[in-house]
């Protein structure tokens, strides 16, 4: 799914992350399918981001749910969307800073029900943390994890919070976005990824 920590090149990672951010800013500013309303695009000068921080690129251990439970997620327009809780990701956060809440955390990862689909769905990881509603969007943020294989219990995969992004509904009410369920409310500050104030 991703390179192991032994192969991790922080300079290359940072350059790729900055390149992805520039590409996304271009899409938001110019593309017809941008969530920024057309009348606001001329004044758009890029999304806000936390500085890249490799401490928030963590290795998580997967617990696979063979009989996934249905989770109904509320959306920003008051509807419900059906997801399956297929994997639980367990990871540690450790930093040298004194003020970080070190510890072990869990996030549920979901997939939409798509009967008969041959392609494996990416894992959808919506979450809130202690930046939510202050430095980041009040409706939470998302990550998507794509795997090139079927996960098994104990598999390790990289979860990079620097790729956490703001859902489109933050920019326009024409979008309907699922809200992170309470099981994915992290009691920790994750100053990584996209900001939204």
From TrEMBL:
Q: Which residues form a coiled coil?
A: none
Compositionally biased tracts (Basic and acidic residues): 19-28
Q: Which InterPro entries match?
A: DUF1684
Ranges that cross the membrane = none
A Pfam family hit: DUF1684
Annotated region described as Disordered, given as residue ranges: 19-50
Put simply, this protein is called DUF1684 domain-containing protein
Higher taxonomy: Archaea, Methanobacteriati, Methanobacteriota, Stenosarchaea group, Halobacteria
